[in-house]
Amino acid sequence: MTLPTETETQIARWRGYVQRRQAISVDDVDELEDHLRHQIADLTSSGLDDEESFLVAIKRLGNMDAISREYAREHSDRLWKQLALVPETSGPAGSSAWREPAIVLGLAAGAGLAVKAGLTWMPGAGVPARNCGLLVFPFLTAYFAWKRRFSARVVTALLIAFVILAVAVNVYPFVPAGSTELLVILHAPVVLWLLAGVGYVGGRWRSGGRRMDFVRFTGELAIYFVLLGLGGGILIGLTSAVLQLVGVDLEPVIGGWILPFAAPGAFIVAAWLVEAKQNVVENIAPVLTRVFTPLTIVMLLTLLAVLAASGGLIEVDRDLLILMDAILILVLALLLYSISARDSLSRAGFFDVMQLILVVLALAVDAVMLTAMLARIAEFGFSPNKIAALGVNLLLLVHLAGAARLSVGFVRNRRRFTALERWQTQYLPVYGVWAAAVVVAFPPLFGFA
């Protein structure tokens, strides 16, 4: 049953929300969606417009949290079965179920081989560091290409972007351990992250909903990767301790073989786990954001107190400014993940006020840092690092200011939450463009020093 485009968009957003309820299977969601569509069609034929029909049909369908609880009571076994990596089937269907894990493991092994080869054959310390992301992200994008069935146009565009980046980081005659080489090492992963995002959305980067899905994917990928890293680190540590007791030193093998394969392999496997089991970990997201938001507020208040007690802004230590930049980026990541995990249909509440406080404090810290950076530039002159840091802080200032303005409107019930979501997703490509400018333009502008 085909409905108007705007209604189809609303149904797609509703379906994505419902699918994140782990107790509801895909077949159940299909049944609910079919019922919703018939309700909308009946209401439209009775004289209501499209938006009114959708809202009334959703109201009649009921509260999805209550529906989820009901499904959980009736199908409690699903909560455990969903943790399985492949379905319990046999025959041809079971064979096809193993295809994706096999492809993922092959890509993970390929990423490990690429990193191992890079560490072995690339000369110097800076070259492997500049190429580290280039050795891993193409395998992640290849997984998305297989999963999303990219068109030739998307494949060509991504290949051209990867080639341009690879040429820039390898052909430029960098001064060893110079400032521009360090900037490239730090900013190239941001460009690769943006390219992976284009791959994740299947080339539909203009879709705000798909960009927000990528934000959610990034947060869940970080969770899975950390969990895999912790588990793997414990296993490697225990194995090494046991072997040392019998006189076998495992450290050369760990550094030369295990880590080059384990880290990139875990990254690819974590991406697959997010794709396969995102409805399991996504229920952790609201808990994590509610725990870390107040803690981050306390941290930002402490930072403001430290800056106030440090005396003149010119005397602020450069390393402190770098650390505070990293903290602000983490705050922004927390904000984005909180927004991606929130039900956009719910009204403003206490936690939204907490997020607004977080954004305002981050704005205050960023303003102080910008003032300190400008003072240092006026005193000591320009450098590649200072310009790059200044650019990042200006981008953060605009991003956080927009988020604060829209959050105030939402908390005061004058704006919809979707406006805040839209601002986040529309602004994300700006960071990728800036990082690309730093990687491609900064080295020749500053003489590759």
Automatic annotation (TrEMBL):
Highest taxon of the lineage: Bacteria
TM stretches of this protein: 153-175, 181-201, 221-242, 254-274, 295-314, 320-341, 353-375, 387-408, 428-446
Keywords: Membrane, Transmembrane, Transmembrane helix
Transmembrane among keywords: yes
InterPro entries registered for this protein in UniProt: Perm_prefix_1
Name of the featured protein: DUF4153 domain-containing protein
